[in-house]
Amino acid sequence: MENILIHGQISGQMNRNHIRLYHRTRMCIWKQWKKTRTKVKNLLKMGVPEELAYQAGRSRRGYWFTTQTVAVNMAMTNERLIRSGFYDLAKAYQSVHENC
């Protein structure tokens, strides 16, 4: 019984780390797009509606806050980040511990 509880705690912690890691990844990408023009252009390329792209690109809020907006999350989904080469920790953990 104790093993199941520990597995659940570790799984929950891994899930929180996974969410934080992808948020941090989005923030680093957003920070690399230094100019407003670049941010808007890249968001539009990724299929974000024009109004949302301009709102996010011209935001004067910090990187961490801005990467929680709808526009950035719509542009940089977890699937898109994984396809571009980022590692999915949650799936890796589940594949290793699926029989526990």
Give the helices and strands, then pairings.
Elements: H1 2-32, H2 36-45, H3 50-57, H4 63-66, H5 70-75, H6 78-83, H7 89-96
Helix pairs in contact: 1-7, 2-3
Written account of the structure:
- The longest helix has 31 residues, at 2-32.
- α2 packs antiparallel against α3.
- The model has no long low-confidence stretch (mean pLDDT 84).
- The chain has one domain.
- The protein has 7 helices and no strands.
- Helices cover 73% and strands 0% of the residues.
- It has helices at residues 2-32, 36-45, 50-57, 63-66, 70-75, 78-83, 89-96.
- With 100 residues, it is mainly alpha-helical.
**Silhouette:** elongated
H/E order of the elements? HHHHHHH
- Calculate the terminal CA-CA distance, rounded to whole Å: 11 Å
Residue share in β-strands: under 5%
Note poorly predicted spans: none
Protein name: Group II intron, maturase-specific domain
Summarize the structure.
Helix content is 73%, strand content 0%. It contains 7 helices and no strands.
Key attributes of the depicted protein:
mainly alpha, 100 residues, Group II intron, maturase-specific domain
